[in-house]
Specification:
458 residues; eight-stranded mixed beta sheet; seven-stranded mixed beta sheet; globular
């Protein structure tokens, strides 16, 4: 049986940073990374903007680089955005160092610092919104691909990476773990699970030999809005990612903007057997539209505690009705009628996702969510005039799943990244990979086994 010191399951931001960190801090340890998806250069969606064909492994969300590869490529070096970690300065600098190393002069990365913060904060506050200014390093989808290309080349020369291989079960065998996959079995002293949100639903099966507890997390549910770029230009020029939070008057629900893509495009992705919508933008190639998500945060109390199932059920209903992503003009939604191809064509916004199906989001999203979204758009129009006009396009549903938090007491076995439920973005996922390796190093120096609670800072 093949034996390694460290086996990492998942080649997304968390798993790759763990491998990179181990090369530096545990140089005498052999490392194997197992990835379900493709090598970077083979990650190509076969349909792009046509209706999703539900590939067994989605090239948009899985493969080298994880879901972040084909995201908008925004890196927010912050503890307040993208997860629950209190990021230490050495962690922030280490992750920044990875970008400095692999973002060369050919990659179109750019640092965006927010301007007129006080003015935007004041105007947002007047209408009940909270503005969260953030410094953003924007690679774009084009730059993110090139960054991961350099990262892949570096790691493949130093780490064993198996693609097209799926972890199925882990068990303890003496002082080692046995990792069973669909292609073989491996022994390891340490096992680091970094499945991302796309693979987190399989964790309970993989960890079935151990006693684990799972706690439901929240889910964000909403739509992706697409408007002419000039509507958003004034605010996106000052703050590339205007993060705004609002609590609705009718239901007191938390609503926020998410993933603003100036000059971007809307895309579809296949996650956990359902089709959902997303967006990205290139740093060098811009379109005439800007898109962003409006998300309503959903948490549940007893007796129901499965927000993942709730979000999935709404997506399945949308997929059943339309076969994929539903597209509707805001004006049609207000008038209580479905959008048609004719009405979409008559609008002033040309949809960037050609595979979206004109329809009626009211058949899918509960009244409460539609009410929250419309109320928020009307409030947002005070800060961004024109964003709530009838011509605005709504794609949906858009759902952001947060992995359930899984607890166990098995030493030397770890769950990191977005699949852990503690991080929700590229930066904090990378921090989790670095932190886990540092914890292993410190435990070895003390002659101890390493506890699984990597998220603790003390």
């Amino acid at each position: 049986m093949n034996r390694h010191d460290i086996v990492i399951v998942g080649a997304g931001p968390a798993g790759l940073t763990a491998a990179y960190s181990a090369l530096k801090y545990l140089p005498d340890h052999s490392i194997l990374t197992i990835e379900k998806g493709n090598r970077l250069e083979k990650r190509k969606c076969p349909v792009h903007d046509r209706p999703c064909v539900k590939c067994p492994v989605c090239h948009i969300t899985q493969g080298f680089g994880g879901a972040g590869t084909f995201s908008d490529g925004k890196i927010v070096f912050s503890s307040t955005i993208g997860g629950e970690l209190q990021v230490k300065e050495d962690e922030r600098e280490f992750v920044k160092g990875i970008f400095e190393k692999f973002v060369d002069s050919s990659i179109p990365g750019k640092l965006y610092r927010p301007q007129d913060v006080e003015d935007i904060t004041y105007k947002a506050m007047k209408y009940g919104m909270k503005y969260i200014p953030s410094e953003i390093f924007h690679l774009g989808t084009d730059g993110g691909f090139l960054f991961n290309q350099n990262f892949q080349k570096f790691l493949e020369e130093r780490v064993d990476i198996h693609f097209h291989e799926t972890a199925e079960k882990i068990e303890k065998a003496g002082g080692y773990f046995r990792v069973h996959t669909d292609r073989g079995s491996y022994e390891a002293k340490y096992v680091i699970l970094a499945p991302g949100r796309a693979g987190s639903h399989k964790l309970r099966d993989i960890l079935s030999p151990f006693r684990v507890k799972s706690y439901g997390n929240k889910v964000d549910l909403g739509v992706r809005v697409e408007v002419p770029a000039m509507i958003m230009e004034e605010i996106t020029t000052k703050t590339y990612e205007p993060k705004l939070i609002y609590y609705t008057k009718q239901f007191d629900d938390r609503v926020r903007t998410f993933c603003v893509n100036p000059g971007g495009v809307v895309i579809q992705e296949f996650v956990n057997d359902v089709i959902t919508v997303n967006g990205f933008s290139y740093e060098l190639k811009k379109t005439e539209n800007t898109n962003f998500a409006i998300l309503v945060t959903v948490s549940f109390t007893e007796p129901f505690d499965d927000p993942l199932a709730y979000g999935s059920s709404i997506l399945k209903l949308a997929n059943l009705i339309s076969g994929g992503v539903i597209l509707q003009k805001l004006g049609d939604l207000r008038k209580g009628r479905r959008s048609t191809e004719k009405r979409i064509a008559e609008g002033i916004v040309e949809p960037s996702l050609k595979g979206a199906i004109p329809g009626d989001l009211a058949f899918v999203l509960p009244y409460r969510f539609l009410s929250d979204i419309i109320e928020f758009l009307d409030v947002l129009s005070n800060l961004v005039p024109g964003v709530n006009e009838d011509f605005a396009l709504l794609y949906g549903p858009e759902v952001k799943f947060y992995s359930n938090k899984i607890y166990h007491d098995v030493k030397n076995l770890f769950i990191i990244g977005d699949g852990s439920g503690y991080t929700r973005g590229i930066f904090q996922s990378m921090v989790s990979g670095y932190r886990q390796i540092k914890n292993i190093k410190e435990a070895e120096e003390k002659g101890q086994v390493c506890a699984p609670a990597w998220w603790a800072t003390d």
